[in-house]
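Notes to self after the Tuesday call (sharing in case useful).
The group wants a holo model before anyone commits to mutagenesis around the pocket. I volunteered. Ligand is phosphoric acid mono(formamide)ester. Logging inputs and output together so the record is complete.
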Amino acid sequence: MLTPSGLLSVAPFERKNLEKFLRSISSGGGTKSSSKSSQGLSQKLGVLGFFEPSTRTKLSFEAAGRQLGISWLDLRPEDLSLQKGESLEDTFKNIALYGVNFFVIRHSASYFPHWVHRWTQLPVLNAGDGTNEHPTQALGDALTLYQLAKGKKLEICFLGDACRSRVAKSSIRVLKNLGHRISIVDESRGENRAFAKAFEISLAPRKKLSSFDIVYCLRLQKERWAQAAEEPLSLSELGKTSKLMDAGPVIWGETMQREIQNLAPERNLILKQAENAFLVRLALLQELQK
Ligand code: CP
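Result:
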């Protein structure tokens, strides 16, 4: 899946390659069990450059890398000479001098990981850039549905702040590419209507949520000036069969009512998504040795 620039976007993914990647992880080919393939990674040095908070993405990359023998430099933006006024470009050009092999970058500015690649010429794994993309989340989501669907094409409905959601942008592209049918709810402000048009997906009335195989809840991006538009999802809206996805963090009471915690575990895919995103990151780090 990686290119010489790393993994900046899901845009270049072809369905055939996506399916091959997901099949490989599902069959255990992308996990640490292929220890022979992780040997080449023992000398690699990666940089964790997270300029926004993260639990799942940062720590899963770090944990996966440790399993593979990768050493990490953990950039803490508040400790860097950025605080003295140094530019980001000079910061990254200096860091690249220290035997670094690749970067994992999260930033509030869309396309910032692309700039890090341009400045350093090193592979960059995009760990979330502004409102633009979150490729490894999308691959973890795709893996979750690959395991669930077993070849069936699913009806998936997104609920929430899609316009400002990098998760929505990457996951919708990947899941559409894999042949799933995607809809989005927009009943309050009309923002998602333009989004649906741009992404060539359908609009769905909220009262039909229970007819979907999957309801994918999107966090309100308050750090990007979003205000609540939709009521929190309720258990009854999921009906008797719809399964639930959410990239996390889940803000209980805001996008989902707390009663959702009572959803049967086999219908709540949230932790499975996090586990699969870890497996995806492990597989991508293994690819770095090629
Ligand atoms: N889903 C996700 O990116 O979570 P974190 O912000 O905790 O990394």
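Two things stood out.
The pocket of phosphoric acid mono(formamide)ester is lined by residues 54-57, 128, 137, 247-249 (CB under 6 Å).
The longest strand covers residues 45-50.
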